[in-house]
Amino acid sequence: MTVQPPEPSPRPAPSGALRASHDDREAVVEQLRDAAAEGRIDFDELDARLEQALTAKTHAELAVLTADLPRPPSAEDRPALVLKGGLYGASRGPGRWEVPGRVVAHGGVGGVRVDFTRVECRLPEVVVEAYGETSGVTIVIPDAWVADTSGMDPGTGGLKDETTTDRLPGTPLIRLTGSGGVGGVVIRHPNRRERRKLHSNPTGG
Q1: What are the residues whose beta carbons fall under 8 Å from the beta carbon of 104, sequence distance 6 or more?
Q2: Under 8 Å between Cβ of 52 and 61
Q3: Phi-psi region of 62 (alpha: psi -120 to 50; beta: other; left: phi over 0)
Q4: Across the chain, what does the average pLDDT equal?
Q5: Residues 35-87: pLDDT tens digits?
Q6: Cα(144)–Cα(171) distance, rounded to whole angstroms?
Q7: What does the alpha-carbon distance between residue 29 and residue 88 come to, in Å, rounded to a whole number?
Q8: Domain extents for the chain?
């Protein structure tokens, strides 16, 4: 009996050869329009580059269109969002807000709540440092997001993870670190009351 050697696994495509998505093309279009508004390229060149951007098939084809332009600021460039509970508590959300790559929450005496349910976030990962301290920290994430709590020290207040593992492609991973302290840290999806509000007013406007 002849044993056939295993077929080699397909090699991953170089990043520049990866197929571009509609969102990738739209991001380049916006960057080109901003460059024209700033006087970096003239409008004839803008038209030519826009046409190429809209028909680009790969990341490499898009990259050459913006290679001579400044890189636009991204969410990763934003400074960390720091929330301190203090005496009266602190919160961010549930309205729309810009999500940086790192969020630091100190529960303090008043507690902290971080609500991501109405945000649009294209980051692959958001690090949330939560310190329960006296009154705790509550983090609410959309149903399609997941959390990694393996780096969290539960402390005396504990860690309550009520999230699922069903992650929708294109959504960020919430990497939770820090310590539960006395107040503890809770990370969960919206409850019934919050879901009713989301359904009745999905835009949060």
Answers
A1: 80, 81, 82, 83, 128, 129, 131
A2: yes
A3: alpha
A4: 88
A5: 999 999 999 999 999 999 999 999 899 999 999 998 766 656 679 999 999 99
A6: 7
A7: 44
A8: 16-66, 75-200
